[in-house]
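Bug #77: duplicate submission created two jobs. Keeping one. Sequence:
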Amino acid sequence: MRLRLRVVMLALPVVLTMFAQGAPATAEQRQAPGEEQGFTWIATADHFEEPVEGLIEHVVAARPAFVVGIGDLVFQSRPQDFAVFEKVVIGPLAAVGAKFYPVVGNHDYPLDDRWSTFWPAPTNRPYYSFDYGNSHFVILDTNRAVLEEAGAESEPYEEGSEFHAIQMQASDFEPGSAQYEWLSKDLEQTTKKHIFVLFHEPAFSYGGHESSTRIQAVLCPLFERHRVTAALSGHSHGYERFVPLRVDMSSGSPVAVPDEERGVVYVVAAGGWRSLYDITRHETHAAIAKEYHFVKIEVSGDRATCSAIRAGDGKLLDTFELKSRRP
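Kept job's structure:
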């Protein structure tokens, strides 16, 4: 049963400031490690304002350097949901010095001016990147893929609705768009040993939401070219890990090809709270689980150990190792 906490509505500017900065400075705030030092970070998604019982407790116990929320953090930008989210997510993370980095998801729309405070100045846009230790992290806005999935990208949706807001506000990621050009330059410039890319709608999924052929055709070749270590998404409620995949465009349409040398590992980590979806087993799956969960990534040198952990009791659902393919 989902536990709904009673909270006193906090002053909105305080909530926004804490969320924008992740965790405020504390005596235990971690300093970014050097290139040779290891660190732990965590990915979770689709928890809305109040994650499933046990998730935050296990996340806090892992004492990560930071957490990335891969979309659907609140519902339709409602102020009351931000207040709950600050109390049950941001507050406990701040207490152990863990920063929070947001990815915008489809249910976070419509966005308003408050969201611009969440993203790095001076651009204040929903796609950005940051470095930590020997790793480079890229946050993307792929929400236009939701319109592709619905098969009605040009439909006249009702003003104020989620789809209308995505049409009006979500960043395009097609070649030539501002986001695509920024991403190309960003990936080209980084010299870090690992690149982790995070975006809400998955490139590959067989768990309630379809794979995005647009993301496969447009973004996946960039990930391959720059030897991304892993790409993590949410949206399709459940856990899916794929074998390293390369996208073959020789037929004019994207075809996923297992490729240990040139492929990218794609993970769907959408077990934060909302109802779980049935997952259809596919030949490109390495592991699946219809469970509430989060993913812990422990980076050490050119390797990273990843663990999918069940929210309720902390049971290990899946573990695997990633190895950098970058010089």
